[in-house]
Amino acid sequence: MARIVLGVSGGIAAYKAVEVLRRLTEAGHEVTVAPTAAALRFVGAPTWAALSGRPVHDEVWADADQVPHVRLGQRADLVLVAPATADLLARAAHGRADDLLTATLLTARCPVLFAPAMHTEMWAHPATVDNVAALRRRGAVVLAPGVGRLAGADSGPGRLPEPAEIVELAQLLVCRPDALPADLTGRRVLVSAGGTREPLDPVRFLGNRSSGRQGWALASVAAARGAEVAVVAANVERPDPAGARVARVGDAAELRTAVAELAADADVVVMAAAVADFRPADPVAHKIKKSAGAPAPIALAVNPDVLAELVAARRPGQVIVGFAAETGDDAGDVLAHGRAKLARKGCDLLVVNAVGGGRAFGRPDNAGAILGADGSFVEVPLGPKAVLAAAVWDAVAARLGS
């Protein structure tokens, strides 16, 4: 259990922070909510107190004998501000301490995570750009906002990242306070995610169990570490990761085309998608009817090896990461199959997951081994998928740096 201060500033997205609070408390964390006075005009103190089980104040004068403006920051394992408005970011960047939240930010020596939400023009204004840069320079993590509907009829960059994504990154920082350095700043990253579906007829397909959750974690963590992120998503039913451009595809052929186009100028390509090895050779244009009797055997054709093609076409200095979902068999265990695949594919890194028995696919947690072409080996024990994602980016950043 971690001690988390949830700062809430005064924007319409404050209502989404209620869901952030709920998820954090259900995960077992002790959460103290520190709203600004403006935030309390959107969501009242009784709501925060009821859901957190703790008293709620916005001023430094309440419970003065306990010195809350100092103690909250000193005791916290994480300070999370969601939403972080343009005004809050400006006050934090300039070291203001005119309410409980900004005073807490000055005393905190733990990781600090800001989830911005504001109108597009505010986010793009040079003042906000400078304030965000200053906070990041001091070690705070400032997420890129999402893109979508804002207050009123406006739409564009500035939307609060989804509560599930905010909580995933917050819990990552609780597990690993050093997990989100800005070491991918200026790097272009491509991540593939999800599982392809190869059509048999207009209704049926050959597919796999991949949900895209690991690819989403990779994209989210990369964006939080400063990368410019593109995602090729095969049949992923999740909101876009904040700060990422998403191209949605269906089958292996569509994924191959999209990946080849986006990989051309990427510094890093991570092939986390489960791409079908085979496809029906002759998909039928109409639904196959049960009344037609016993179905004809399905002839299969081999799909192109997208990872091998990327390796063959890679630019000097480009880092390519593959994934291998393995079960082990009479020919070898999971790691033996992974090492053979790494040698066969020629990528820089291969992340090997043991699957089957309810592991990996569709779950919030994962375990894996990161194998390097240079003989390196990093084992990541079972934990949130963002933790495995951070370990992958650690290995990538080391290779980019060298």
| Span between termini | 37 Å
Rg: 23 Å
Largest sheet: 8 strands, mixed
Structural class: alpha/beta
* Mean of residue pLDDT values: 92
Side-by-side strand order of the widest sheet: 12-11-8-13-16-17-18-19
Shape: globular
Number of DSSP strands? 19
The amount of helix comes to 25-40%
Can you tell me the residue ranges where pLDDT is under 50 for at least 5 consecutive residues?
Answer: none
Count of runs of 4 or more consecutive helical residues: 13
Beta fraction: 15-25%
Walk me through this protein's architecture.
With 402 residues, the chain is of the alpha/beta class. It is built from 13 helices and 19 strands. The chain has helices spanning 14-26, 45-52, 68-75, 86-93, 100-107, 120-124, 126-137, 163-175, 213-224, 252-263, 306-313, 334-345, 385-401; strands spanning 3-8, 30-35, 78-84, 112-116, 141-142, 146-149, 155-159, 188-194, 198-199, 205-206, 228-234, 244-249, 268-271, 278-280, 300-302, 319-326, 349-354, 365-372, 377-384. An eight-stranded mixed sheet has the order 12-11-8-13-16-17-18-19, with helices on both faces. Helix 3 packs across helix 5. The longest helix has 17 residues, at 385-401. It is globular. The model has no long low-confidence stretch (mean pLDDT 92).
